[in-house]
């Protein structure tokens, strides 16, 4: 479940006198392009985060939030790199984890305005909110960066070439080791109530060549998604069969291949079951198939079979993952539980998989974002990311869950 752990912030009494004064160079520059989000806005609002930072700031109701992480307790002096056009002056409020500082921006190019000094008593993420109070014209200003002057080591997104990925947030994975000649892989997935944020992909059954899971695509659309990439030599993946009401199209975004999805209003708090089959076709290709079981219907639904040419394999590289695929929603937290993983051999034997390796993508491993966790939770594996929570769980470690001993109650020969 998503948690917010607030840090106590104490302002120096001299902060008000410092507001609006220039500060010396040498600060940590926390660019809004990689660390800022519009976290609250009215419908039709114009504010955006672009490559230069916060732009089109016209509404006093819009809240823009910036996060940085302190590695230990310490003091930090905050300031803003901001410019103003469209108004002669504007008054804005900068709130650092609940403590407000009011400053005045004046018309002109970007310059540095001191906000004030805070004391952070524990390691973790610090949230800084910006909100307009009043303005003489139509515009509150443009904000390029938050500067943080502190002797305490900081973590924030500082790789400008990958700001898109840092704003999406860290993707985290669970890797399973399956026996040789595993034909079927079974997994159970539960998204806790409130963790189904828009832009989330809860991927259940991944393997060399593709993946299968559930997504939240919009406030009104959810998908059961199954994707298979083209062969390593570029040969095209082709559709063999698909289930009723399943949409198929070419795969976009991360490469080429086949993608199929079922529009299905799956619900947080329910447990869904997934089966994938990977089997060579005997002619130099491999067929990849997927089935989805929903408690609402108590039946298995066939999604699709895709043929990947120039590939001869059974299940390999089996894993699950959690990601956010909408960068503007990267400040939202999400989590998922995975349980009762089983592998079925070509000979028909089921093997329970009780150990998983917790890993992360480059955003996590390069410490561009540190709001990630995974491991064991209530006897199940779990993954968590986004929301700038504290503390995190280090990646690159193994976890072992209690065995259920309950092989899947499914006759694979009768799957639709």
Task: State the gist of this model.
Helix content is 4%, strand content 53%.
Note the main attributes of this structure.
4 helices, disordered N terminus, 416 residues, 2 domains, 29 strands, Jelly Rolls, 9-stranded antiparallel sheet, 53% strand, mainly beta
Mean pLDDT metric: 92
Major β-sheet annotation? 9 strands, antiparallel
Which CATH C-level class of the largest domain is it? Answer: Mainly Beta
Note the overall shape: elongated
Give the termini separation. 35 Å
- Taken as a percent bin, the fraction of beta residues is over 45%
Give the tally of β-strands.
Answer: 29
The proportion of residues forming helix, as a percent range, comes to: under 10%
Round the Cα radius of gyration to an integer and report it.
Answer: 24 Å
Which stretches are poorly predicted, pLDDT < 50 over at least 5 residues?
1-26
Overview of this structure, please?
The chain has four helices and 29 strands. The protein has helices spanning 15-18, 32-35, 163-168, 362-365, and strands at 10-11, 28-31, 36-40, 48-50, 53-55, 63-70, 74-96, 99-120, 124-135, 142-149, 154-155, 172-175, 182-190, 200-207, 210-218, 221-229, 238-242, 246-250, 257-263, 271-280, 286-294, 299-308, 319-324, 334-345, 350-353, 355-360, 372-377, 380-385, 397-400. Strand 21 and strand 22 form a beta hairpin. With 416 residues, the chain is mainly beta. It folds into two domains: 10-156, Jelly Rolls; 168-414, Jelly Rolls, CATH 2.60.120.
